[in-house]
Amino acid sequence: MPCCSLHDGPSRGNIIGRTCSKQQLMKSAMAVLALMLVYRCGYVRCATVPQDSTDMLALIDFRQAITGDPKGFFYSWNNSVNYCNWNGVTCSKTHRGRVREHNLTGQSLEGKISLSLGNLTILKILDLSSNSLSGQNYLGGPIGAWIGKFKNLGT
Fold it and tell me: What CATH class is the domain 54-149?
């Protein structure tokens, strides 16, 4: 984008610098920013994420803490399937995209229970029975210390 030339005077005509109008400067800045964003995707994983992805990210974090899945329970937990259709996940009909139930009973899973489950704020049913999940969370505290975050869990 051409900028305006700054001359040293009418008699000499030598260019001593360049100045740009605010509009030209803004166009240049936007072009540079666009290039930075495009080329940055080569270094950072770029993806389209749903507008309210808190529940999906909580489930992914939970899955990453599982070290053993002998029955292949998590086979459906991938990008080609909406997280509301993942095994053991039931989303609310009234709160679109929000996890209402997380049922992992009897899957013989091994690993730790991720604190991110606390981000499933409308969760009503959480069944982790018949698995080998540790009784300590990532912060080293007992499960009971953070289970109170689930205000909507039924009894």
Answer: alpha beta
